[in-house]
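Running co-folding for zinc ion.
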Amino acid sequence: MIPISYWRNRRSYTALMGSRCRACGAEYFPPVRVCRKCKSRDIEAREMPRKGTLITYTKLTEPAEEFGKQTPVYLGLIELSNGVKLVSTLADVSESELNEGAPVSMVIRRWTEEGPSGIIYYGYKFKVDAAYSMS
Ligand SMILES: [Zn+2]
């Protein structure tokens, strides 16, 4: 049986939930409790856009254990369409597509698992848009 809290919170499981300052409009991901620009505590939850552009990336050939068996791991610095920047694992990577300014979109993918029969964790990753890949 799936607990009620799952259904109540399900949007936050598949969305990038950040925050927005009601006083000055600044947006943050991950969410903050105090606005870094104006120090206001009047903060609301705000879903971040799922689209952005790749600024740069790094390739981890010996990633930390929590990345599981995935090797190599690509980490991208991404600027979302609202200007918020974040670091995310990149999915379905073809290195020739990893150019500065490549359009990317958020996808939900397997992050890791606990042991051979353990819990599988899913989370967000970003992937270069198909239209860009074909050009
Ligand atoms: Zn503010």
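Result summary
Residues 5 and 31 are 20 Å apart (CA to CA).
Residues 21, 23-24, 26, 35, 37-38, 40 surround zinc ion (CB under 6 Å).
Job closed.
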